[in-house]
Specification:
Number of strands: 11
Helix content: 25-40%
């Protein structure tokens, strides 16, 4: 009779130990996955300077400059690759300055709505135009966020005051 009770106790001890081992095993892969991801990110940043620094573009109007930090999405990447270009802006709705490009931007894989604030650069899908908001606006469908003004926001309202605005990459 004493042997069976030891067997039962052994089974109970084994059962108590197994969940602890299982918990340790569950924590192990999570920990190692995050440790694995961090070095990969570091390697990409070290290997490719574009990965460590966000892409930036500038709007040049006369002697003034507006610098925009682009978002990381396919539409913003496509805009960056299309530069340099010359655009003519016009005021729309006393809220934004808009300009039409020769080519449209791809929007697959990019957010297709946003709640634009002052300084946001967006692409409006139905009309195919760039929008730079100089006033806060409401949440809008079909508005792809491309980036945010980093410097020169005080010149946004003047985008339509010049006949042509040069848009180029910032290296």
């Amino acid at each position: 009779e004493s042997a069976p009770s030891n067997t039962i106790m052994d089974a109970e001890i084994t059962q108590v130990e197994q969940p602890q081992e299982t918990q340790g095993q569950e924590e192990g892969p999570d920990r190692s996955e995050s440790e694995t991801e961090q070095p990969q990110e570091t390697q990409e940043q070290e290997g490719d300077p574009n990965m460590s620094e966000p892409k930036k573009i500038r709007f040049l109007l006369d002697e003034k400059e507006i610098v925009v930090q682009l978002n990381d999405n396919p539409a913003a990447d496509a805009l960056y690759e299309m530069l340099p270009m010359e655009l003519t802006f016009e005021d729309f709705n006393r809220t934004e300055k808009i300009a039409y490009m020769d080519e449209t931007l791809p929007t697959e894989g990019a957010p297709d709505s946003c709640d634009p604030a002052v300084g946001d650069l967006c692409f409006y899908i139905p009309w195919g135009n760039l929008s730079v908001f100089y006033k806060d606006f409401r949440y809008s469908e079909s508005l792809v966020p491309l980036g945010t003004v980093e410097s020169g926001a005080e010149f946004l309202e003047q985008l339509d005051a010049v006949s042509s605005v040069t848009v180029e990459t910032v290296e």
